[in-house]
Design a protein that fits this description.
Blueprint (H helix, E strand, L loop, with lengths): L8 H5 L6 H11 L4 E5 L2 E4 H17 L7 E5 L4 H13 L2 E4 L6 H11 L3 E4 L13 E2 L2 H8 L15 E6 L9 E5 H15 L7 E3 L6 H13 L3 E3 L5 H10 L2 E4 L6 H11 L6 E4 L8 H11 L3 E2 L2 E3 L3 E5 L3 E2 L17 E5 L12 E6 L11 H7 L5 E9 L5 E6 L4 E3 L2 E3 L1 H9 L4 E11 L3 E10 L6 H11 L8 E4 L15 H7 L3
Parallel strand pairs: 1-10, 3-4, 3-5, 4-7, 5-6, 9-10, 11-12, 24-25
Antiparallel strand pairs: 1-2, 7-8, 13-16, 14-15, 17-18, 18-19, 19-20, 21-22, 23-24
């Protein structure tokens, strides 16, 4: 007999099966007159948002959307995007968030992959979908919304049911759809609030694309907890400065490449913050001096995290960089809400100080890649998710990021991790961005080439080479320096420089 017979088992488990939609509906009762969403001059209370969500749920059901069916959405940031998330959660459907920056072929692949029952799009982007029927936001959509009765009962949800499909960047091939469950979404919200000290009703500014985990998950987290979501379509530094001065913010997401611009705007406007708990993300990709400056200006520590679409903020989400100090180390602390190990190519755990691929398991983990048996088999070996990122462990248990497994430069039998070189280059006070790629070499096979953007005038090459000689072994030093404009670095939605795109752009 199973052990569960002694304490209720499946009968009792149903009582613990709250989903994201159920938790938001609960807040709609508890915080009915509080502003839930603000976009420009539009403000929706929790009561008003819940009504719109229930009406949209009715429309979706009438269109044949049922539990487990996919809803594709292609839109810039707007309040309706949040309504689609929640309506899907109410009826047990799955939202496949489409990247409007993709090429037509890539977009067709992503939509075709999930075979959606319904496609919702904004007027700005609807024409990018050519061969499929689209329901467009606008006057007709609003009229239809106001003409239907709201659903009364929410669908029963298993915590492992899918809620979102967020696509990977696809730097080495076509994008894959990462499936995020209700369990993972709720866990990610709990972890973020526990580790960053974010209050239940703190405001979140959703400026990064809502097809990306940063905006999607923090916005849903705020709405599950009674917070306010302010929707901003893209990185508008003047608007963000205004919000910093007037709102109590929890986590102010700042992607690499945008930290310096916001700091300059804060100084130019002499902004005094009303209150920011935590700022930033991906500290490894930001010049250390910029971290010190932005934390001083916002009076908030910098999130020295390492996570992914597949994992949420863990595995490394427990370290905050102090205010106003140039970090000498970017070592990360493992989240207490997951397990990790570092392994070599054969799956054996490596010793402290040796580089190894980071493997993780825990409640924030995604549910696998949509319809990709091969990738799931490969990445979930041995009951662990293999992240594809190389770390080394210090004697005190902290972790140092080395680089991506997939982007390794093999030079004369030596392994070179570009991120190590990039960190040295970014330590120079007049270098604002750096990326290292590989180039073919007759003697060494592959060699590192550095692309650099400078703050004002170009830094002399001899000065950069001297810095590299001081900090890097000979074989790791870049064999060529190329100076380009900051804006010419190709980036993903999360702000990461896309090395493969940089190679293509400059014919490597």
């Amino acid at each position: 007999m199973p052990l569960s017979q002694y304490y209720g088992g499946k009968q009792i488990a149903k009582s613990a099966a709250s989903g994201v939609g159920h938790l938001f509906a609960n807040q709609a009762r508890l915080s009915s007159q509080k502003v839930a969403v603000q976009h420009g001059n539009q403000k929706l209370t929790y009561e008003a948002l819940d009504l719109r969500v229930r009406r949209l749920a009715t429309i979706l059901v009438d269109m044949g959307v049922g539990s487990g069916d996919r809803i594709a959405i292609l839109s810039e940031n707007r309040a309706e995007y949040l309504e689609v998330y929640l309506a899907a959660a109410y009826i047990g459907a799955v939202v496949a968030c489409q990247n409007w920056r993709l090429t037509p072929n890539e977009l067709e692949h992503c939509i075709g992959l999930v075979n959606p029952s319904v496609i919702l799009a904004s007027p700005k982007h609807e024409k990018k979908i050519i061969s499929r029927e689209v329901t467009c936001f606008g006057k007709d959509y609003e009229a239809r919304l106001n003409a239907v009765n709201p659903i009364k009962e929410l669908a029963d949800i298993d915590p492992e049911d899918a809620l979102l499909i967020l696509y990977t960047s696809g730097t080495t091939g076509l994008p894959k759809g990462a499936v995020i469950s209700h369990r993972a979404e709720i866990s990610r919200n709990l972890v973020t609030r526990a580790e960053f000290g974010i209050a239940m009703r703190d405001t979140f500014v959703a400026w990064s694309p809502m097809y990306h985990m940063g905006a999607a998950e923090c916005a849903l987290g705020a709405l599950m907890c009674g917070g306010k979501v302010i929707v901003v379509d893209g990185f508008d530094q003047e608007k963000i400065c205004e919000l910093v001065a007037t709102e109590e913010l929890g986590w102010l997401l700042l992607m690499p490449g945008m930290v310096g611009a916001l700091a300059a705007e804060l100084k130019a406007q002499q902004i005094k913050t009303r209150g920011v708990k935590v700022c930033g993300v991906m500290a490894d990709l930001v010049p250390p001096r910029e971290i010190a400056e932005i934390t001083r200006l916002l009076n908030a520590p910098y999130a020295n995290t390492f996570g992914a679409t597949e994992t949420g903020c863990p595995p490394c989400s427990s370290n905050l960089l102090p205010i106003g100090i140039i970090p000498e180390s970017l070592s990360k602390e493992q989240s207490p809400f997951c397990e990790i190990k570092l392994v070599d190519a054969e799956g054996r755990e490596v010793e402290d100080g040796s580089p190894g691929e980071l493997c993780m398991r825990g409640p924030t983990l995604f549910s696998g890649y949509w319809l990709d048996t091969e990738a799931n088999k490969k990445e979930f070996r041995g009951g662990w998710f293999h992240m594809g990122d190389v770390f080394s462990r210090n004697p005190d248990g902290s972790l140092n990021f080395v680089d991506r497994v997939k982007y390794l430069i093999k030079s004369g039998g030596e392994n070179i991790y570009p991120a190590e070189i990039e960190r040295v280059l970014l330590s120079h006070p007049r270098i604002s961005e750096a990326a290292v790629v590989k180039a073919s070499d007759e003697r060494w096979g592959e060699v590192p080439i550095a692309f650099i953007a400078c703050r004002n005038e170009r830094v002399p090459e001899r000065e950069i080479y001297e810095l590299c000689r001081q900090e890097l072994a000979g074989y790791k030093q870049p064999k060529e320096l190329r100076f380009i404009e900051f804006k010419d670095f190709p980036r993903s939605a999360s702000g990461k420089i896309q090395r493969h795109e940089l190679e293509k752009k400059f014919n490597f």
